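Sample pair:
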Amino acid sequence: MLYAFELESYLEGLLPERPDLLQEMEHLALEETIPVVTPAVGNFLSILVLTQKPKAILEIGTAIGYSTVWLAQAAREVGCQVTTVDMNSGRRERALEFFRRAGLSEYIMSLAGDARKVLPTLAQTFDFVFIDAAKGEYLEYLELLHPLIAPGGMLVADNVLFRGWVVPGAVFDRKYEKMVQTVRAFLQHLSADPRFQTTVLPFGDGLAVSIKK
């Protein structure tokens, strides 16, 4: 977390009360150490979709479907669908059940497999893309995604500040060195990429928000 836990809790407390299903998913993720976005990030994703009104949404990294539900709730309002990709079959099955219980199944297309293999098979373009999967593969995703993002489309990448450790001089266990370097390289590459205009938001675990030129 890039700032005090108390501040994160305060910001979360400002959100409207979330449906029981989302709270159940939050508790499950906490109990089983399943990485999901924070409620504040989920709410932010929903706001982005509601304001941008995309025609098609793509998510890389479903996990148990927490961020997918946030996206799909907004997709239902604007009349589009979320395509989400994940290679973990167990978590994907649990996500499908959550989608059913949320009444959102018709707004979500769930694809099984490694995103690096799935993305080249997709024929349509997307005007909203959210990445929250294997951090070491973000640069690969970026190149595979670029032709799939419509001009003016939005790309949002989670965990780009990686607990604040991407900041030079940060202190962390050396076992995370390779991951930190990889995330730092992705963020520097994306920020300098002339194909995108990018800003970085320091909440949650850091979000990069980019518009394809």
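The chain has one domain: 5-212.
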